[in-house]
Design goal:
Blueprint: E1 3-10, E2 16-23, E3 29-36, E4 39-41, H1 44-53, H2 60-71, E5 74-76, H3 80-101
Antiparallel strand pairs: 1-2, 2-3, 4-5
Length: 103
C-alpha cells in the first residue's frame, strides 16, 4: 500500500504551494508533485523534479538533488525558504515512515 504525504503553504501576500509525495512500501517514490499559483522560470524545472524523483528511494541525497534543481530556477510568489522547508518536511516524514516500516 502506498503512502501519500501532502503539505501546503500560503505565504502572506504570496502564492500557494502544495507538495505531494506518493511512496510505495519499498520506499520508492511513485510521484512527487509541486503545484500552486507560483511561477517558476524555466517552468520545465518543476517537471524535472517529478521526473528525477520517480522510481527512486526516498533519501536525503535525493532531497538535495531536488533542491539543487530548484535552485537553478527563478521562483516567483513563494520564498526559497518556504519551498525548501516544505520539501524538507515532506521528505522527513517519508523517511520516518520508511524507517518505521523496516523491521
Amino acid at each position: 500500500m502506498a503512502m501519500m504525504i501532502t503539505r501546503t503553504v500560503k505565504e502572506a501576500g504570496g502564492k500557494l504551494l502544495t507538495v505531494r509525495i506518493v511512496v510505495g512500501n519499498d520506499c520508492v517514490i511513485r510521484e512527487l508533485t509541486l503545484e500552486g499559483d507560483f511561477f517558476a522560470f524555466p517552468p520545465e524545472n518543476i517537471d524535472r523534479v517529478s521526473e528525477v524523483s520517480r522510481r527512486r528511494k526516498v533519501s536525503t541525497e535525493l532531497l538535495n538533488e531536488v533542491l539543487a534543481l530548484l535552485g537553478e530556477a527563478d521562483i516567483v510568489g513563494i520564498s526559497r525558504k518556504s519551498l525548501e522547508d516544505i520539501l524538507h518536511s515532506v521528505f522527513q516524514e517519508a523517511l520516518r515512515s520508511c524507517r518505521g516500516a523496516v523491521r
